[in-house]
Design goal:
By secondary structure, this protein is of the alpha/beta class. It has 35 helices and 13 strands. The two termini are 48 Å apart.
């Protein structure tokens, strides 16, 4: 056998008969990647004692399970002996019939009448060939009175996919098609039809009949579950109903205390009374409890509060979660939703039950500390990251296939560069060929290029590798290997689900997003620089800085936003020059407007803001909703409020209207139009005017932005702008520190420092530190930022 075959453990096929079998299969899949849990290592058996070299190499074999794992988790699993690469066949191929029999006898003793001897007829080029050991395998099966079953290992879908799959193996193993000593499958490893399999095994009808028997014995499909929240610590040991009631009470107490603390520190919005806040809090708590989510809020609040206690920078929020007053009271978010007219129903809608989803930004340097805290609190076996799969995109697949076909690098590079690169809207290889005459010409003129395209098109979109999702974490209410199979990323010691983001929640797990945001680290670094000043050190609380600072708005109006979160692009600077922002609401509007589609409204907003154009309102009843944005509908929340005021929608129903408008589903739109028009007519609006307003709302809803997200990110933008306006030396030093490895960015920041009259002292072994530092109002260049150092 080729050397790589000698290093691989043998294979068996395991099929789940029912729920117990499926659960055991999930655990075996997890064990294959994670290894045995502490205390579960079994004693060495006679079989393993015969193979000391194999035992010594266990850690080098990659994902695998032991015979002891199989013995322990055998219940309600059917075992097929694995065909050509099975434990019995490899011994027969090596001429060791004695050990082959011993292995088959061992499998039979474990699985009993659930053990089937697998027969395959692929006609491989491996030596010895399958047919040379088939008689010995049949003899063993009959001697041990074990049933036989005909199988075909399916490696690719169609016979004509053979060459493309062969190239894929070469891509995976870093070799080339022309190499001799490598893994190879013949074209027989395709998905054969029933007729083809019947013809192939016509001499062994019992082997064919057993495929039907096995199919009938496997009567289980993995269930789709509603997400199961882990118990919050306060409710441990209680039954579900009692636990949820206890969590609801804990949530109420924490939210009420938190609201008092927030109002004492920040005050209330001018247009709202203390009673308004209490009424909104009661409304949200009622919905959260009815929907069964008190535990979710408590879990999120717990790890965010822990992070803040440890001095780990946490973002003010992102997404629709910033619309929750409960979240603000619990310090999950840092935006007062009452002050900025943010709607709770945009986040949690009782008319459409779905899991709440807080996306949390943490300082990128300390995000891991928060994840470790969650592991300690809920158990390392109940917390995991989420797998993600990298696919072969058009350009990459051309380069990979060109390499394994041993085409000249320059030729492949020229062809690949003719494929448009647009990560936001990737172009398929066929689309690229259709739109680019030079690709068509290359394909027609050279046979090898035609082979390249044909092979690459068959492989395009296939998974290339597995990695870990950048943010997703799941927390279970039990060990995760009881719900999903687990995997371990070689670069991390934390388990990873084998189900991707789309499937972890239907499997019953609750997803939390722990995102790393570099800007939070920049802000923290700048605040530390200010606190460490040689003269006049200050302790800055970013949560308490005034959001009406005139110096900050003057800087923004000048477009001096290099390094300012979300506002530093040339387009943003141009928009700021036109807008001349002088209030926080302007930044919120710009964050929401600066996207394809609504961007055309920036000039309208600016003209109305600066008095160059009269603000227009589609109806006098909703002037209060649109006054903040000068009559321009910018936010999804405005669409919801307009539906509430004009047509009598509840905010929950208005959220359904917003979603229907965004999705443009005809039947749903017609239904919603009828509801809207009837409601508006009942409020004294003419039918024609109601239809006109509905059409206008539908247009804006298509690209309306979530105001809660815009407000939360506008706060980060404002904080960075404030630090730059008030503490430019420390802020620029912090931005340079966080982009130390990017010479292009460092050059831009040095130019900005020069523009602001800030001296950047060249690197010196006498005065510089490893990172950027601030001394006597000057930025000292970092030694570690010197290229090659």
């Amino acid at each position: 056998q080729p050397a790589h075959r000698q290093e691989m453990p043998p294979f068996v096929v395991l099929l789940a008969m029912n729920e117990t079998g499926y659960n055991n299969l999930v655990k075996l899949c997890s064990l294959a990647h994670l290894g045995s849990k502490p205390g579960e290592a079994a004693e060495t058996t006679d079989e393993s004692a015969e193979l000391p070299d194999e035992i010594a190499r266990r850690h080098q074999l990659g994902p695998h399970i032991t015979i002891e794992d199989l013995t322990r988790l055998k219940q309600d699993l059917i075992c097929l002996t694995g065909g050509w690469e099975g434990p019995v066949n490899v011994m027969l191929a090596a001429g060791d019939n004695k050990r082959a029999r011993k292995r088959l006898d061992r499998l039979s003793s474990i699985f009993g009448d659930r053990c089937y001897v697998e027969l395959q007829r692929h006609g491989t080029r491996d030596n010895p060939r399958e047919e040379l050991i088939e008689n010995d395998l049949l003899r063993l099966a009959y001697d041990l009175q074990l049933p036989i079953v005909a199988t075909n290992q399916v490696i690719f879908a169609k016979r004509e996919d053979h060459k493309a799959h062969d190239a894929l193996i070469c891509i995976a193993e870093g070799t080339v098609v022309a190499a001799d000593d490598r893994r190879y499958f013949t074209e027989e490893y395709y998905f054969k039809t029933q007729e083809e399999m019947a013809a192939l095994f016509s001499d062994l009808p019992e082997a064919l009949a057993n495929t039907v028997e096995i199919a009938r014995r496997c009567a289980y499909r993995a269930p789709l579950r509603d997400p199961i929240l882990p118990r919050f610590a306060a409710s441990d040991g209680a039954d579900p109903e009692t636990a949820q009631a206890a969590e609801a009470e804990v949530l109420r107490k924490q939210a009420e205390r938190g609201l008092e603390a927030r109002l004492e520190k920040f005050g209330r919005a001018p247009e709202h009374s203390r009673e308004d806040y209490q009424k909104r809090l009661e409304h949200e708590l009622k919905i959260i409890t009815q929907m069964g989510f008190p535990g979710y809020f408590l879990i999120v609040a717990d790890f965010i509060q822990w992070a803040k206690e440890q001095g780990i920078p946490v973002g003010p929020g992102r997404g629709s979660g910033a619309g929750s007053l409960v979240a603000w009271a619990l310090t999950i978010t840092d935006i007062d939703p009452m002050r900025f007219s943010l709607l709770f129903e945009r986040f949690l809608n009782p008319e459409r039950v779905s899991m709440p989803d807080f996306d949390i930004d943490f300082c990128q340097d300390r995000r891991e500390e928060v994840i470790r805290y969650v592991q300690r609190k809920y158990g390392a076996d109940q917390v995991a990251q989420i797998i993600t799969f990298g696919t072969l995109q058009a350009r990459a697949v051309l380069r990979d296939v060109g390499r394994v076909l041993q085409m000249p690098y320059g030729q492949v590079d020229r062809i690949a560069k003719l494929v448009p690169a647009n990560p936001a809207n990737p172009v398929t290889l066929q689309q690229a060929i259709d739109m680019e005459p030079r690709l068509q010409e290359a394909r027609a003129s050279e046979g090898i290029v035609d082979t390249l395209f044909d092979t690459a098109k068959r492989l395009e979109g296939l998974y290339r590798h597995a990695s870990t999702h950048a943010a997703g974490i799941v927390i279970g209410d039990r060990p995760l290997d009881e719900m999903v199979p687990l995997y371990r990323d070689p670069r991390s010691d934390m388990p990873v689900t084998q189900f991707n983001m789309k499937w972890v929640e239907p499997a019953g797990l609750v997803k939390f997003d722990f995102l790393g945001l570099k800007t939070l680290t920049v802000l923290s670094t700048a605040v530390n620089f200010v606190a460490q000043r040689d003269k006049e050190p200050e302790q800055i609380d970013l949560q308490a800085i005034p959001i009406d600072d005139p110096v900050t708005y003057e800087m923004l109006a000048r477009g001096e936003t290099v390094g300012v979160f979300q506002l530093e692009s040339a387009g943003m600077r141009k928009a700021l020059l036109g807008m001349k922002p002088d209030r926080f609401e302007d930044i919120i509007a710009l964050v929401a407007l600066y996207r394809p589609g609504p961007m055309e409204n920036i000039s309208v907003y600016n003209a109305r803001k600066n008095g160059e154009e009269e603000a227009e309102y589609i109806h006098p009843m909703i002037e209060a909703v649109l006054k903040e944005t000068h009559g321009v509908i910018i936010y999804q929340e405005q669409v919801m409020q307009i539906a509430q005021i004009l047509a009598g929608y509840s905010l929950g129903d208005a959220d359904l209207l917003r979603r229907a408008m965004g999705k443009k589903i005809r039947a749903e739109m017609d239904k919603q139009r009828g509801i809207f028009v009837d409601g508006a007519v009942a409020n004294g609006i003419s039918k024609s005017k109601a239809n006109e307003i509905f059409d206008l709302l539908a247009k804006f809803a298509d690209y309306g932005f979530n105001k809660s997200h815009a407000a939360a990110y506008a706060l980060v933008s404002y904080q960075t702008a404030y630090m730059k306006a008030r503490y430019p030396v420390e802020f620029l030093a912090a931005t340079m520190q966080l982009d130390m490895g990017n010479t292009d960015k460092l050059s831009i920041f040095r130019q900005e420092a020069q523009h602001l009259g800030i001296e950047v002292v060249p690197p010196s072994v006498q005065t510089s530190e490893s990172g950027f530092s601030v001394k006597e109002g000057r930025i000292h260049y970092a030694l570690a930022a010197i290229k090659g150092c």
